User: What shape does this take?
Amino acid sequence: MRRPLARRLIALAAAALILPAAAACGSGDEGGSGKGDKGDKGGKSSLVIYSGRQQALVKPLLTKLEKAVGTKVEVRYGDSAELAAQLLEEGDRTKAALFFSQDAGALGALSKEGRLEELPRQTLDKVGTPYRSAKGDWTGVSGRVRVIAYHPDKVTDVPDSVRDLVKPEWKGKIGYAPTNASFQAFVTGMRVLDGDDATRAWLKGIKANGAKAYGNNIAVLDAVDSGEVSLGLLNHYYWYERVAEKGADKVKAKLHYPRGGDPGALVNVAGVGVLKGTGQSEQARKAVEFLLSKEAQSYFADETKEYPLAAGITSPIKDLPPIASLDSPRIDLGRLDSLRETLAMLQDVGLV
Amino acid sequence: MHPAHIPGADDAGRTTPSVPRPARDADRPRPTAPAPAGRRHDAALPPWALLLPAGVAALFAVLPLGYLAVRSLERGPGFAWKVVADERTVTLLGHSLGLAAAVVGACLILGVSLAWLTVRTNLPGARAWSVLAALPLAVPSYVAAFAWLSAAPRLAGFTGSALALTLVSFPYVYLPVAAALRGIDPAQEETARSLGLGPVRTFARVTLPQLRPAAAGGGLLVGLYVLSDFGAVSLMRYDTFTRAIHTSYRAGFDRTPAAALSVVLVVMTVALVAAEARTRGRAGHARTGTGTARPATPAALGRLRAPALVWCGAVTAAAVAFPLGTLGYWLAIGNSATWDPTGLLDTATNTLGIAAAGAVLTTVLALPVGVIAARHRGRAAHLLEQAAYAGHALPGITVALALVFFSVRYAYPLYQQLPLLVCAYAVLFLPVAVAATRAAVLQAPPVLEDVARSLGRSPLRTLRDVTVPLAAPGVAAGAALTFVVCMKELPATLLLRPTGTDTLATRLWTETGAGSFAAAAPYAAALILLAAVPSYLLGKHRT
Assistant: This one.
């Protein structure tokens, strides 16, 4: 037996241990601009945000938020659902003052367990009632609409209702993401609009029609783009992000916005809620104010290609139809909190 | 020539140690034993000096089970039973076990064949191939799955999941089997040949039985890994238990059904560990004779040379070159590739530090458990080993939420601090280190310990002066392996890291979540390159 391996590994481990220790002296965190001026206790003085929205999308915005609120901000990025589960597990000992969720469902779950503080009337009133909590304890800050993506060479006549997708002409031609939160919110919307029986029948219908299940919206879009499927159900901004990523000439797929108040055109939101019991409500509320300011709302429009939700601000992206022009279903987003029943239905049908 | 090493014979050739140990008698070799039993101390309890730290490690590992019990029974046993007894559970069970069986089978074929080719034949470039065969360890399952999926979307489902998981986990079999092949005394095979057995029968009857513990141990790790993997199956859209548990959190933010399903995973783990213990048998393969074993004469491949080279080349291409190529492609085409060297360097440094700490703690905890598993039998030893494996099949998110639960309640100052994350790694990867330690100790001849004892050394000093130094290279290899898996870990890192701290894996994941594969590619590439260093050392490592 020879020793050098052991020796080399120990050297490697030692080097690896020393490096971060040295680096830690430099800067403690990266939630802010990395000046390293955070005292080691940090926690109380700085505003902790749990962000279910991706770092790449919202970090620049949260840096601006830090200036606007005047408090140091620490951000924990993760998956909305996992962060919500974590917040529930943490209870009132949480360090987070603000939860920035990718969808209304995760906020609804926290609201249901009484973990969110009520927001001031004045803040809530900036956003139209369809896009905020009926209880007044969270608000949407940006909107996304469900769309049908299609491959122009394979489809000439895109249906105006997802209800048509159970027809035999679409057999094996549809892609969707049943485990995706937005899809599940859409199914919940359909349950609210059409009732449980019709929704169950529709789910069974598209399954029987050979619809292909993908892991997420990006995979659905890629499948449409490559012609693997003809139609895909997803959120509008995935397409705009893909165009930004690859260039317009490299994206074949096109978008169609269903009409007639179809559940396939549901508008859902990303939103924020202030957590109870952190003693930082004031800063957290200021942060919510900032996210509804013109600066932040324009950011969502420009950078994440979502719809601004605060009154008086419109998206500058061309070929994105104004939110008011969308023929979306009128539905109380608060009623989308029956996600558990949707999940049971999806499991029952065998989709998740 | 050491008659004691011929399988089917026994260890009658061993000198009886002068220190009488009654426990030894229970292990009197039986002439019909399939392989020489590594000397074990039956019935008698392992010394307290080992038992206590091992007990601490085991307690640590079963912590998530306590959490699962609390959570799954939160709404009463009826509700938990309803979740578990659902017919969907049967489907998921079939999917998970089927996938695990397929991947373990494929890994055994890849691992054993490559080990034999690189260690025992005149394969051209054997040393280089042996390094390449360890490199897939550096590739996270979600990167492999993504690479294959982007090239061939039709692979999605069982085939793709099995392919991606096999290609990233066959080194778990390759490494121990290659080490065992190097450790085997060729004299036994020569004896068998001289007694008239042909090469194939010699391999089947002499070599293979000695490889069995190594292959079974590696296969167990692969099986447990498949049961707990989330990244590959989620990208490949194949519904396994782990994926269902994630979906449950995701769609319902509901911890109760997820916990109830996790309990089923734990039961599967126990079954797998028990099955492995049976397969492993009682084989140990320490040399007890004088002198050093000669290296085996390499078998001439002859006309099989070309196919052997093609085989090694194809496996390496599929497991290493292909994912790297895909990353290169994304780096090249994306215009969202924001080249941020400082951010990358910071993240890489964080990753190295956290993974190293995880590897050190895991190895320290694994040491007593591994020694006991190798040298002792009886209920206590058995329970300890099983406990060490308990957390391994659980999805990272379950283990992470368990630690959130306990630390928020009982160790709040530690919450969202690095030590807690390091502890999570130890819970998750204890089996990797235990398997390596156990194998290393098994290869250390127990007769040397007996001599030390006969010279009046205490059991503890014997351990320190004899066993540990002999097993050190194997233990170090286990530490390197743990280091690599810690670097790649994702769900627990996401939940438990200090706010604002990132690892390469978490950055990679959050970037792909936003759809910018090009922005994620530098992190994926850095992760693979860093993890390749210990993997490379593991491949070069010759015991």
Summary: Chain A has a mean pLDDT of 84. The two ends of chain A are 51 Å apart (CA to CA).
